[in-house]
Each structure stands twice: as C-alpha cells, then as structure tokens.
Design brief:
globular
C-alpha cells in the first residue's frame, strides 16, 4: 500500500478524482475515505449546492425544479475545475450534462462506481433525501433509471469500479490500482 500511497499523493497534487455513479453506489463514503487516506480535500457537490442555495435538495427540487439544481451543479463544477488535490463526490445525475463531464475532466479523472439495483435499494431504502426516488423505492424503478443513465455514466468514465460486496478499503484500493494502470498507459 505504501507504493500506492506515494503514487496517489503525488497524483493528487495537481489532479482531482471525481467519483460518479448512481445514488447509493458509494461515492460519498469512498470519497471521504480516499481524502482521509491521502490527506486531501473532500468535496460533496450536493452539500456545496445546499450551502450556496440555503435549502435542502428536496426544497430546491420542489421550489425551482431539477433544471435549476443541475445549473447550480454546473456552477460548482466550474469552480472545482480550477483546483487540484480534491476527491469529489458528484451527485448521481452530474454526468448527464456533457458540460459537467468536460469540467470534471479539465483537471482530473472520472471514476464510475457501480452497483446492482438490489444493492442500491438496500443502501438507500431508509433515506428520504433522494427526491428522484420519492415514491419509487423499488428495484424495477431503480434498474430502469440506471439503464437510462448507463451510457452517459460509462461514456464519462475513465475508470469503472464495481462496489457490490466489497469493503470501502477494497474499493479504494481498486481505484488507486486502476489509476496507476491508466497512467502507466499514458491516458491520465
């Protein structure tokens, strides 16, 4: 792990790692862990939007709608594209806008975390902070929405890491190994 830590610490001096994927895939938890391990800043885009807007995500959706939320998200990413040394946990719909993908790529690598609809449901079933799932917390709805987003997620991703049945440490190790492999190929 020491070789990984040295490599990652050096990589994160000038780059960001943006974690994307469906809600409940593990983005926030993995981002917090990576930032702690490597001593870099952890950023949750949804939390930044809540702070800037002065209301919850549910309130933003109810009062202004999803397009307003997505525009706020883009403004946050514009700010983050000018920095390095961050692990960014993106909202589940962030990469649905090509502009957001370009902003994330400007100064970093996009990592897609995946999980099955069953795993997602298990992870989010007790949360009321997911406006898109309001009244739709079931495997069929989650699976259909994941299928609708899959192409955008995969097209945006530099790296894809499954999270089903893995510990947070295993997912973090998979991410670092994949980044090291990607750089060895000259693509990072």
């Amino acid at each position: 792990m020491e070789k990984r830590k040295d490599w990652m610490t050096n990589y994160l001096k000038d780059h960001n790692i943006a974690l994307t994927g469906f809600m409940g895939a593990g983005k926030s938890t993995v981002a917090k862990t990576l930032s702690k391990i490597f001593g870099v800043k952890y950023i949750e885009t949804d939390e930044m939007i809540v702070q800037k807007e002065g209301m919850t995500i549910n309130e933003i959706f109810a009062k202004f709608g999803e397009p307003h939320f997505r525009n706020s998200e883009t403004k946050i990413l514009e700010e983050l594209s000018e920095t390095g040394g961050c692990v960014i946990s993106c909202g589940g719909g962030t990469v649905m806008k090509d502009e957001n993908v370009e902003l994330l790529r400007k100064n970093g690598c996009i990592v897609l975390l995946t999980a099955t609809p069953e795993t997602i449901l298990e992870r989010v079933k007790d949360s009321d902070e997911r406006p898109i799932l309001k009244g739709h917390k079931d495997v069929d709805f989650i699976g259909a929405l994941m299928k609708k987003r899959r192409e955008s997620y995969e097209n945006a991703a530099d790296i894809i890491v499954p999270t089903d049945e893995k510990t947070i440490d295993e997912v973090c190790t998979d991410i670092v190994d994949a980044l090291m492999d990607l750089e060895a190929g000259g693509d990072v």
